[in-house]
Each structure stands twice: as C-alpha cells, then as structure tokens.
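To: structure desk
From: M.T.
Subject: fold request, one chain
Message: Could you run this one when you get a chance? Sequence is below, nothing fancy, just the single chain.
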Amino acid sequence: MATNITFHPGSVTAAERSEFLKQKGVTIWLTGLSASGKSTIACALEQHLLHLHKYVYRLDGDNVRFGLNKDLGFDEKSRNENIRRIGEDVLAGLFADSACIVITAFISPYLVDRKVARDVHVKAGIPFIEVFVDAPLHVVEARDPKGLYKKARAGEIKDFTGVSAAYEAPENPEIHIKTHEMDVAESVRAITDYLLANNYIS
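Reply: Done. Structure tokens follow.
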C-alpha cells in the first residue's frame, strides 16, 4: 500500500444513512457449485427486494471477472484473491457500508476465504449472511447450462470446482437452500423471511 495517502472520512455517518434509507447494510453471500442456482436466485432476490423499495445491488462472480477481477485466473491463489477483493475492498468497504443490501453470487469454494470475508464484515460492524446454495454434483452436472462440467470432464478446463478442484461446503451457514428440493420462489422467500425475522428489513 502507498504511504503518501490519507483516508478522508465523510460527513455522513452510517447511522444517518441507515435512518434515511430505512434499512441497514448487509451482505448476503451465496456460495455453491457452478449450476447450483446462485445467480438465478440472486437475480430473483434482487428484483424482489427492489419491489419492496429496498436499496439493493447484486454482484455476480462471472460479471466481476469482466472488470475488477479480469486479471485473475481460476487457480487456488487467484480464487483466494478474487474473494479477498470482493469481500474486503468492494463489499465491506463500499456497498454494504453505504447501507446497501448486497447480494453476491460466487462459487467461493474455500472455507478460509469465506471466513476472511466474514471477519472483515464483523470487524466493520456489517452483517454477513452466508447462504449455502446446495445441489448434489450429479444434479448440477445434469443441469450444466454453460457446458462447463462436460468440458471439465473432458479435460478442457483445469481446476474446475467439483471436478478437478475442491468445494468446501459451509459448516454453519445462516441459510441452507437445497435447489433440487426448492424452486426459485421458495428460495427467495426463505432468504426474505430470514431478513425480516432478523430485522434487516421491515
């Protein structure tokens, strides 16, 4: 980090921002295998919360790699940095701190990386809700909307999560959604009910 910089605090406090917007900043972190349904649920949840007049924004794993993280690959070190940038620099530092409800849809396969993201939020006083979007490997391989599992099985994609790279399932997620048993509407309802029950929205 450069040494010739000084942090410039704003004149609007987090409490003022939350009071004006009638909501608190919170990060809803969707994690799961490719084709488990993370992006589909994230899009539907964003739409639903917006219709409830909530300040909400969605960050998708693939989309972020077109810009902020376009210099990163899919090896373990790059995956670590991908989640560090999202969890620390973008989410805790900017979006959620602005009282935004941030929905992230990232495979984020490693327990330690998700713990780093959570710890950054806890340190900043920003709620972190881990949502395990769960579906068995045979189910996501059957879905395979992008044809990625087929390519991974053929050896055309290296370090593919669930095939040639590990996915470490959450141990104690706040919300566990089994997309082979629940449809999109039920998944959105489960997350919304959690937000309401815990006073993140009203």
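Reply (cont.): The radius of gyration is 17 Å. Let me know if you need anything else for the meeting.
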